Amino acid sequence: MGFYEYYRAADREAALVRPEASRVIDEPYGVAGFDAVETKWIDPWGTLNKLVALISDEDLSTELVGVVTLYPPPEGAPQSEEELDVLPEDSPYREGPGIQELSVNGRDLLAGADDARLPALMERWAQIEELSSFTWADMEYLLSVAEDLVGLSRRAKEQGQLLYCWMCL
User: Fold this and answer.
1) Between helices 47-55 and 118-125, what is the axis angle to 10°?
2) Of 62, 119, 134, 148, which sits 20 to 30 A from 141 (CA to CA)?
3) Taxonomically, which superkingdom (predicted)?
4) Range of 133's domain?
5) Quick check: pTM over 0.85?
């Protein structure tokens, strides 16, 4: 299980402020809170991408949410198991946190969701492999997350901002 916090920011510089800090919690160390949605299990590559595919009436295997790794920087990533093994225990390359930038296309497709269709789409979304452990009681959670992500995407689009995902496994 992972924790995924989706948030909007004006640019990469703003998105990367204090990358080790949660985006949902206002910290007492001067980090301003982000407009963010906290989720569990909703990763950008699989689970969120499948939600966007359902919203767009596309095949679930279609990659609609492009993702770029921002943190830890890919250019400093270990290139082998041996390099990973010698990193300090607290290295973000080991267990995170990490920050991903989501594509404009993913943001716009999510922002364009038909609110009236969301409840029906949740039934289909709950059937994907990644959410197979969810029960019908979890449908309210999934609908709430979907509505929050759609709203966040709309606000980002209106402000000319991108979506980012801060994650910790």
Assistant:
1) 140
2) 62
3) Bacteria
4) 3-72+93-168
5) yes
Q: How many domains does the chain have?
A: 1
| Nearest-angstrom CA–CA distance, 6 and 12 | 14
| pLDDT tens by residue, 80-122 | 999 999 999 888 998 889 999 999 999 999 999 999 999 999 9
- Report the distance separating Cα 80 and Cα 85, nearest Å: 9
Contact 146, 121 (CB under 8 A): yes
Whether 28 maps to a domain, the answer reads yes
Which parts of 14-106 are beta strand (E)?
Answer: 36-40, 67-71, 98-102
Beta pairing partners, 167: 4, 98
Q: What is the CATH number of the domain that holds 117?
A: 3.40.1760
Q: Which two tokens stand for residue 111?
A: 């922002």
- In a domain? residue 99: yes
